[in-house]
Amino acid sequence: MRKHIVCIASEQKGNEFLEQASSDGWRVTLVTRKSLLDAPWAWDAISEVRSVEEPAQPVDYVRAITNIAGSEKIDRVVGLDEFDVITAALTREHLQLPGLTSSYLRRFRDKLTMRNIAAANGIPCPDFIGAFNETDINDFLARVPAPWIVKPRFEVSAFGIRRCETADEVWGVLNDLDNRNNWRDHPSQFVIERFIEGRVFHVDSVVEGGKVRAAGVSQYGKTPFSVTHHGGVFTSSTVPYRAAIRKSLETVNTHLLKAFEYDRGVTHAEFLQSSATGEIFLLEVACRVGGAYIANALEYACNFNLWREWAKLETATKEHPYKLPKLRKDFSGVALALANTEEPNTEHYVEEEIVYCVKKPRHVGFIFHSKNQKRVEELLSIYSERIANDFLAVAPAKERYDD
Fold first, then answer.
1. Does the structural domain 127-194 have CATH classification 3.30.1490?
2. DSSP state of 402
């Protein structure tokens, strides 16, 4: 009898995960929002699909999967999106299935818990404080140099972040949030943090037995905060393999995941290198695949796909243990932007290093692959300008991912 994995996906993503789980001989059930039933899922890999009505809450997914368990044995439950990670844990707890618990996973979802654990284990973070007590906040603002950012504890990417130059601006943001009179926007749902100028990197890891088995180290062009709040072309590219900063990032990433007691799965961690001091700080870490086609870019550079490796880890057994593919050390980069037309025509973009074209409404993007790091950087520079001139659209910054 085939083993059965249920995948929660509140957003359309993770087709490679579904395909790999099916290829490994598992029965795959997808549970998603009703509005996504017509999305381009990997239907050949899916044995069954269930939907939840909108707006769906975690309990709706738990109930839907519990109903599946009434007639079909479930062996694994996985959440594919950032917002599905805790939902999957709640489902596992309700059905008494193996896997990470919701209380444990809070360290990957709550940026305040994340910082407290990291700081307690000697991993540098920008100076921070939870927005709880007026006296403590004023002491923090008096002690820590401006500027500061007020950051949602549970959002993703750079949504909802406010930069403040004065203490009055910080209090203006907190009072505005408090006056909204809802729990999601309550000031205690935010963390106040020193804003540090610098370069932002991401380390995307495959972890087994508490050890990092493979990791891609990349650098953003414009920071996610800048792209989210000011627009522009998002880029990310491979950090040279012999670069000192790469070794430093690999070391701090390993230290971070050990401190978080992470045993098995994939992670996406973001780090900041201060322009003033060169020091590396943790920005955030998540136990899921990074967005913006990072997994695809890493596959071309390093020969591992985070979605597929995650699926292989979830479906591994004593009889069929996890096996990492042979790695390589090439270079890749991704350029991505909002487009000013529904289906951008990019037929005139013909460089041989283009290995992937993004096919998504009102988006334009490419992945470049080469054995030459300078060529990838050159193409990212050229195409950032071409995309900006030909297609770029700028949307107002959203406060929340689901706005």
1. yes
2. T
